[in-house]
Amino acid sequence: MRYGFKNAEEVKETSLKYNLHSWSVQGKLNPAVVEKAEGIYYYTADGKKMADMSSQLVNLNVGYGNKDIIDAIKEQAEKLAYISPAYAIDCRSKLAEMVVKAAPKNMGKVFFTLGGADANENAIKIAKLVTGRYKIFSRYRAYHGSSFGAGNLTGEPRRYTLEPGIPGFVKFTDPYLYHAPFPFESEEQATEYYLGQLRDQIIYENPDAVAAIVMESVTGSNGIIIPPKGYLQGVRKICDEFGIMMVCDEVMAGWGRTGEYFACENWGIEPDMITFAKGVTCGYAPLGGVIVSKKIAEFFDTHKLDCGLTYSAHPLGCAAGVACLNFYEKEHIMDKVKERGKQLGALLEDIKAKHKSVGDVRYIGLFSCVELTKDKATHEPLVPFGKDPEGIMGKIVGMLKAKGFNTYSHEACIFVCPPLIITEEELAENMAILDEVLTEVDKMV
Ligand SMILES: Cc1ncc(COP(=O)(O)O)c(C=O)c1O
């Protein structure tokens, strides 16, 4: 083994002794030791083959072992591993051009970061610089990162440890139709209701103070909440009415996850900014960014862009990004996601019809989840909001992992977001495992 370790057990023990692991009580951890990976599978040291049905943290879109990206990083590391963001270098210029060209037509330039949270931090800053206003609207059922600004944009319980939060950060309610306060007759009616509430809230908060509305185009971690018909277009209209910047967080939903480069394209809207990370390099190197409209880009022709990071537009990240975006094109990944997405949707509908523990399934492209319920009639979630005192969701994820299906859960949702390269057979085989485990879950509710 490398680094002088005698065996996998020693790797784990050393990790538990010295690594602080994210979002966990450290004393309860038992991390799997991973030795190798290829395609949609990774292999643990105890010989288990795991299908990665969450693409790790919904970032490993091209799966493991992508030779194009690996070679690009190697080549860049040998040529020029680092040079400050002030310099123009080939992979930096190329990736910026590719990102802007992949984005909606109104987009003009990109500022590169290392990941999603700092992309959102910089979007907030840019919105404040451009508008001269300070209030930022975002939604309750949202995750935008764990750093201070992004963590305050986040609406769900991962925000609480940062409170009292940033003055002027205002939360509003998501169009989460499965848990709507009353049944709507149509998606259009739901849209009208939620947009009406948002518009009123902006007026009560003083529209002249509101710099931006930040929202995930399709909500990810908080349960694949797909906007009802006309909703995103309606938010765009409200932003235009009051001179507010519309920022779409595409960190999870972007780069092909929904079958389009950016999820907002599914509704034909042009945001003022798009934040992204994850699928731009698929985890082969850290990279994120903020794409800004041509109008915002022009603003900074004559005003100072007060943003900067030592590793902004890092050469290894940019080289990985160019190779990754070329791979999406070369392999027609957007078409493949649309095709596989149809299969996934049909399998999920079967699962919903069959299992009493499944309240709802939501899917777009290869971005999907199964929401578990105690009662199909009342929609009561299997675990209450923000709590899982008995660790039920953890147990269900454990049952899936024991059968070789890797994923994670949040609230009462189990995510199914496999690498975008998954084949028809691989998807069918692994959804059969989910079906088996849900039969066990049915007995628990
Ligand atoms: C929608 C969204 N925004 C922002 C982030 C934060 O990204 P990062 O973990 O790269 O900081 C995430 C991470 O999962 C996300 O899903």
How would you describe this structure to a colleague?
The protein has 445 residues and is α/β, with parallel strands linked by helices. It folds into 2 domains: 32-65 and 332-444, Aspartate Aminotransferase, domain 1 (Alpha-Beta Complex); 68-330, Aspartate Aminotransferase, domain 2, CATH 3.40.640.10. Helix content is 39%, strand content 17%. It contains 13 helices and 16 strands. The strands form 3 sheets. A 7-stranded mixed beta sheet has the order 4-10-9-8-7-5-6, with helices on both faces. The chain is globular. The site of pyridoxal-5'-phosphate has 16 residues, from helix 5.
Describe what is shown at a glance:
The chain is of the alpha/beta class and 445 residues long.
List keywords for this structure.
five-stranded antiparallel β-sheet; binds pyridoxal-5'-phosphate; alpha/beta; seven-stranded mixed β-sheet; Aspartate Aminotransferase, domain 1; 16 strands; Aspartate Aminotransferase, domain 2; single chain; 445 residues; 13 helices
Overall structural domain count? 2
Low-pLDDT ranges: none
Q: Structural class per helix/strand content?
A: alpha/beta
Mean pLDDT: 97
At the fourth level of CATH, the homologous superfamily of the largest domain is: Type I PLP-dependent aspartate aminotransferase-like (Major domain)
Rounded Rg: 22 Å
How many individual β-strands?
Answer: 16
Q: Percent of residues in beta strands?
A: 15-25%
N-to-C order of helices and strands? HEEEHHHEHEHEHEHEEEHHHEEEHEEEH
Question: What is the CATH C-level name of the largest domain?
Answer: Alpha Beta
**What would CATH call the architecture of the largest domain?**
3-Layer(aba) Sandwich
- Oligomeric form of this entry? single chain
